[in-house]
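ok here's Polyphosphate kinase 2 family protein:
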Amino acid sequence: MKTNTKKYLTKGGDKFFLKDYNTTYDGHLDKEAGKEELERVKEELKDYQEALYASDSHSLLIIFQAMDAAGKDSAIEHVMSGLNPQGCQVYSFKTPNSEEYNHDFLWRHYKALPERGKIGIHNRSHYENVLVCKVHPEYVLSENIPGYDDVKKIDKKFWKARYESIRNFENHLTANGTVVLKFFLHVSKDEQKQRFLDRIEEPSKNWKFSAGDLKERALWKDYMAAYEDAIRETSTETAPWYVIPADKKWYARLAISQIIEETLESLNLKYPVLPKEEADQLETIKQQLLSEK
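and the structure:
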């Protein structure tokens, strides 16, 4: 049961608008059937992960960006739960510390890249520097960039240069074997409200909510504009953005898993073939083992 994953792929550009993407879309699928399909895909991902590690030619960087309560954490948990944890690296990026502020904005993200043969998952990413920082440009001042000592100086030229830095960064990664998948979990404002209420009403979920979440929610339009700009500027042929309908968590997980599956399948990963001399040696060792009493 395949969903139309191309539906979520965006080429960016001036014609991209988030309003054109439905947050409640579920592929006209039944929830239980969708969960069964997710389990099937997870089994396939195990095999692809092993082939990725054995081939040692590529790495996979999966980026999750979204508003609060869109389901990033649960998507990572459910989609990746069947993988070998030794081959995965998950990073959740918070506010930069003093050491990170003393480097360029990409430094800490470059340090967290997956090595060849592995899957890296970034829960929030270098895109925070053109999302939350664009909504709150005063945060940029903490980077102590020469020439930018006042919020008024952080203009369109600044953001244009930052988008270009991100494109160049991702082009460099893809040219060197890192496949970049970028997911924006597109949740509606109404659904976020309900999930916030759930977190408040259920004691076991209270820890997930903070007063700061409500302050950021009040800036919803600013964030949507920042996401539109970021996706328009950085969705490229080699590092595309996928806008995933996220009001129904089960469907978001399914769509994400199938996109990852299709991406790994497209790499046509091969297990290494031993040279004849080594293969012959293995056969000799096999016979020795079989001859043991």
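+1. The CA atoms of residues 95 and 187 lie 23 Å apart.
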